[in-house]
Amino acid sequence: MKSEKLTRALTRLTPRTALVAGGLAAVVALGTLGGGIAYAAGGLNPPPVNPALVHVASAVPDRVILTPTETPAATQNVSWRTSVDVTTPQVQLASMTKGPVTASTTVAATSTTEFATDLGYTIKYHTATMTGLAENTAYLYRVGDGETWSEWLEFETAAATAEPFSFIVQGDAQNDVKSYASRAFRAAYEARPYAKAVVHLGDLIDTDVADAEWGEWFGAAGFENSYLNVIAAPGNHEYYPGPELSRYWGAQFEYPRNGPAGTPEVQETFDENVYYVDMQGVRFITLNANMGSGALLAEQTGWLDQVLANNPNKWTVIAFHQPIFSVTSGRDNATIREAWLPLFEKYNVDLVLQGHDHAYGRGNLFANEQNLPAGADAATSQTGPVYLVTVAGPKMYVPDPLESNNWITNGANLRSMNRDTQMYQTVDVVGDQLHLESHTVTGELFDAFTITKTDGTKLVTDETVAWASGPGSTRSDINAPERPTPVVPGEGTSTPEPTPTPEPTVEPTPTPEPTVEPTPTPTPEPTVEPTPEPTVEPTPEPTVTPTPEPTVEPTPEPTATPTPEPTVEPTPEPTVEPTTSPEPTTSPEPTATATPTAQPPASPQPTENPTQPKPAANPSPIELSATGIAAGDSLSMKGSGFWPNEDLEVTLHSDPIELGYPTADANGGYFFTAHIPAGVAPGEHRIVVRGLESGAEASVAITVLKPGSAATGVKNLAETGVNGVGVGIALGGAALLAGLVVLFVLYRRGRREGGVA
Q1: CB 640 within 8 A of CB 628
Q2: What does the mean pLDDT of the chain come to?
Q3: Strand, helix or coil at 725?
Q4: Rounded to the nearest 5°, which phi and psi values hold at 129?
Q5: Alpha helix locations (H) across 192-323?
Q6: Residue 743: how many CB atoms within 10 A of its CB?
Q7: Is 630 exposed, middle or buried (0-12, 13-18, 19+ CB in 10 A)?
Q8: 231-277 confidence digits (pLDDT tens)
Q9: Coil, helix or strand for 196?
Q10: Mean pLDDT of the region 290-316
C-alpha cells in the first residue's frame, strides 16, 4: 500500500520540480553537514577580515620601536618590521628642525631577523644603533631601505647626569589590546608626552607566536613606541604556548646584554630579558620572574645582588611580572619572594613594579612603618621600598579578602587596592623627589605618593593631590610651552574677566561703556563686588545670581584639585559595584591614606551582572595523558566544571611552578598541554588547575621522572572529537540528500517504463 502511494507521488513529480527540490535539499543538507562538522570540531566562522590581510608586512616599515642602550645619553637603538623584499635596511638621522630635513646621516641596520609567522607570511625585523649623539638632545629619524621610508619620527637622548625626567608605567595589556589597552597606553602618553621611557610589566600579548596580537600591541601604543624608550619585562604569556620565550622578543626588542652570564646556557636564557639601564640618575632593572625556581632563579638572584650593590644612581626601579605580594586569586609566588624580597629590603630599592594579577595594589612592609622621622605619621608614611601591582588591559581578576590577602599574610601593608579598572602610572623624578601617580584610564587620580631622599634619610609619603605637571610634560630643549592648567568656571581671585556679565544687565545693547545708566558705579563695582549694584536697578534676575556664585565659591577648591570633574561623579559604574562584594572593596584599612574618595567605588563587582551571580564552579577530576612524565617533556590534561570562558591557572606543586594559563570553553571545559621544566626535581608532585575568577580548583598527583625517561601510565586524551548534535544533524542532512537522489532515480526509471521519453 505504501509503495503504491509512493509511486503515485513520484508520477506526479515533474522533472523540473524534482530537480528544484533535490537542489534545495542538497543545499540544506550540505549546509547542515558543513555546519555540523564546524560545530562538532569547535570551530567558528572566520572573522569578516582575515588577520593576514590586516597585518601582512610590506616594504613600508612598521612596528617602529626605540629601546635603550647601555649609554642612553650617547646612543639609541631602533627596530622595525618589513617584508622579506627589503634587503638594505637603514636609518636616516637628522638634527631637530622647525622645517623639512635638509641634511641627514645614514646608518645601516646592524642585524636582521627573518621568520615565518602564524598567519602564513614571512617577515623581517631590522635593528640599528645610532651613535655619537649629544646628551639631552632631540633628533629626527626615519627608517627604510633607501627608497621606501617611514615618516620622520622624533626622540630625545637622556642627560648624562641626574637631570629631572618622567617615565610611564603600564601593566598587563594581554587581551583585546587594540580595543581596550590602547586607552591606557594613550592616556598615559597624553599625561607625559615628553617622557623619556615607558616600563611594561609583562603579558604584552596573549599568545607568543600571534603576529596579529603583536600588530595590535604596536597599534595600541600609537607613536609612543617610536618616540620614547620601551623598557619591557617578559610575562608568562610571552612564553605561551612556549615553552621558549617568544621569538618576537629578541627580534623587536634590542636590550643591553648585561644580564646573568654564569654559563653559556644561563647567558642564552636571560639574553635581553634580564638587564639594567642607567638613565638620568635612575637604575632600571628588569627581571624574569618566569624563571622563578631552581638553578636559574639562583643565577638571577646572584646577579641582582651584584647590580644592586654596585649601583651608583640615587634611584632604583625594578620591574618584573609575577608579584612578590599577590593581590588576587589566592596566588603566592613564594620562591621569588624568598629570593628577592631580602635584597629589595637590604638595598632599600625605591620602586618594585609588577603585573600579572589583573588588579591594583600598592604598599610596603609593616616593618618600615616603625621608627619614622620626626613629624611623620605611619598612617601615611614609611621608609622602605614601594611594591606596586597594576593592570592596563581589560581582563580583571577578583582580589582576595584583606584578612587572607597575600600581602597581609606576609607582613605587608596593602595601602591601596583597586579592581575592575584599567590604570596607568606616571613617575616624575625631580631632584630629591620621586613622585608616582596612579590614574584610572579616564584620568582620575586614584593613588599617589612621593619618595623624598635628603641627607641620607628616605621617607615615602602618601599624597591625595596630583602634580599639575612633570618634567615629561614639555620638551626641554625646545622650550615647549607648559601645559595649561584646567580651566574652571569662575577660577581666579583677581581675574574678574567673567565680570562682563554685569554689562548686559545695564542695557543689553550698548556694551562699550557700562556707565550709561548705573552712572559712575558700574565700572568699579563689577570688578570689586558684582552683587550690590545689579541688585539695585537693572532687574536682579538676569545675572545677579549666576555671576557671583562661580566667582566666589569654585576658586579655592579647583585650585587645590586640578581636575574637579571626577568629584562630580566620574565613574557611574561604582554606583552599581558597591552592592555586591564588600570584602575586597573599600580597600579597608589601606585605602585611608591614598585616595579615600576613589577607592571604595572601584572595588566590588565580581561578575558582570551582580543581580544574577554565576553558579558555584564544580571542577571535575583532572585527566592526564600520563601518570608519570620526564622533566623537560610535555603533558596534556583536560577537565570541566569551571565558569564559562574563565581564565585558568595551571601550576605544578609544591614549588609552585606556573605551567600555563588556558581559558575554559563556553561550557567550562578545558584541554591543555603543559611543558614540565627540565629543572624540576624527580619525585611526587601535584598539578593544580585554578579558576582565576571563580577561585575553584582541582588537583591531581603526578610523578616527575628523570629527564629522558619514558612516560608511564599513558592515556589517550584526544579531545572528544565530534559533537553528537552536530554529527546527528550532518548525518540527517546527508541522508535527506541521498534519499532525494534515490527518489529522483526511481522517478526517471518509472517514466521510462511507462513509455515517457
Answers
A1: no
A2: 79
A3: helix
A4: -120, 120
A5: 211-221, 224-227, 247-252, 264-270, 294-309
A6: 18
A7: buried
A8: 999 999 999 988 899 999 999 999 999 999 999 999 999 999 999 99
A9: coil
A10: 96
